[in-house]
Amino acid sequence: MFPKKSRIMSFALSATLFFGVLGTANAENKGNGSEFLDITNVSRFENAIELTWSGDYDKYEVFANGESIYKGKDNKFKQEGLKADTPVEYLVVALDDNDEILDKVNVEAYTLAEKQNKRLMANKDEKQQLDSIRVTTIYKRDSLKFDWDDIAGIEEYEVYKGNEKIGTIKGSQYSEEGLNEGHYEFVGKIEVDDSKKEIIREEAKQQLQRELTEEEEEALFYEYYSIIKSFTPNSEEGKSIASRAALADDTAYSINLKYMTFIPTQYVENPYYPTADATVKYFNGNWRGFNPNSYEYKTRTEAQYIFSSKSLDFSKSVASSKFYDSDKKLQYTRTASDTGIYLSDKGRSNTSAKFVVYHNCEIPYYEAITPAIDYNYTAELKSEKGGKIVVYGSHDKAPSHELYYKINGGSYRPIFQHEIVDFKYLFGVYPSWSFNFSN
Question: Which of 49, 238, 307, 340 measures 20 to 30 Å from 324, CA to CA?
């Protein structure tokens, strides 16, 4: 279990470092002193969120979900009486004596999850848990910052924006100049301990009938962790506080989640040929890339929640597997059982829902020795503010995995798209890929 921070943010960066050079056009927006408005700390509790900011202005006003909750001269405000694990969108505004807006900054934060929050993984001591991590977002007219709980053992993350790697960061904070919506993924890894390495070596020797190479060991000895954030800023220009409040009242009536696993190549070689099977050399693949609308897959699950009727629908599908000889001539076709794929309902209301999807689907080929495709995820859905989604879980590093969401029947948007690493990762003892997504 990773150590929780009582506060998700504690930083005091200069306005130039965090917000970039604001330029002479904004010089008249300064207060009596030399500081621009800047959020310096966000403290999260189960029933409260406290904001602290810098700046030298006559007074400030704080809005929560479009509603004014504070107006005064203090540089700190704590909103209490909130529910656990609840998202709040703040707008902190700097004012002059005539209540004219001089500067403003947005904060999106969650209260902490309840201490009794149930863990998704069966073995809590073996894997880091991502279920209670929530990303705090701070943004202004030309800058953006994310902050999340530290994960013990991860000191560095690779940063992806729209599936393109854009850099590497130290620690659990990321900032950039510019303010555009985007899909961000921060990938860290943790090396497993020596006892787990020995188990992996023995399992590989038994299943693959050989020793692992140094390159394979380097890849197989790490757990991967993804913190994923889909960010869409509130456009403030030309928008009154009243219109922002109306936007905050916007609700979602339905949310869909679609998860598919697939093999991107047309064929994949049978690892048991010819030692255990002298006939089947190839399995069929799906011959495609990432695509939420594809009908080519190994497995597919879909979940839809309709808030007004508290209706939770779940469907699942397993495609047939085909087996070929060395000349790629079809030998036979089989379809795996879907009994290991199911949804567990954890609660529903007119404004929220929580459920877990479990997926264990064996490859229909010598089930005694071939591995299964495993994943599971927990979804926490809220109707407020246009639809808020938190999804966390883990999956095997094979085959390719893709998870999407859509709100109110719109287009599917990615939660993650993870390419196959190696089929050796399907064996149960090998490290998996954990993820935590929020929008």
Answer: 340
Whether the Cβ atoms of residue 364 and residue 373 lie closer than 8 Å to each other: no
Q: What pTM value is reported for the model?
A: 0.85
How far, rounded to the nearest angstrom, does the alpha carbon of residue 121 sit from its chain's CA centroid?
A: 17
Same domain, 302 and 392: yes
Structural domain includes residue 198: no
254 and 107 together in one domain: no
Full pLDDT tens readout for the chain, 439 residues? 333 333 333 333 333 333 333 332 343 445 444 468 999 999 999 999 999 999 889 899 999 998 999 999 999 999 999 999 999 999 999 999 899 999 999 999 999 988 634 443 334 444 457 898 999 999 998 889 999 999 989 999 999 999 899 999 999 999 999 888 899 999 999 988 888 888 888 877 776 677 878 877 777 788 899 999 999 887 654 345 555 555 555 789 999 999 999 999 999 988 788 888 899 999 999 999 999 999 999 999 999 999 999 999 999 999 999 999 999 999 999 999 999 999 999 999 999 999 999 999 988 887 666 778 999 999 999 998 899 999 999 999 889 999 999 999 999 999 999 998 766 655 555 678 999 999 9
Cα(431)–Cα(219) distance, rounded to whole angstroms? 9
40 is a domain residue? yes
**Total structural domains in the chain?**
2
Closest by CA to 273, choosing from 320, 326, 321, is: 326
- Distance between CA 384 and CA 410 in Å, rounded? 17
Q: Are 110 and 40 in the same domain?
A: yes
Q: Tell me the C-alpha distance between 66 and 439, whole Å.
A: 18
Q: What single letter denotes the amino acid at residue 48?
A: A
Asked, for residue 84, whether it belongs to a domain, the answer is yes
Of 170, 188, 206, at which residue does a domain stop? 188
Contacts of 129 (CB under 8 A, 6+ apart): 1, 2, 119, 120, 121
Within a domain: 199: no
Residue where one domain finishes, among candidates 143, 164, 188: 188
Give the range of the structural domain holding residue 286, as residue numbers without chain letter.
250-438
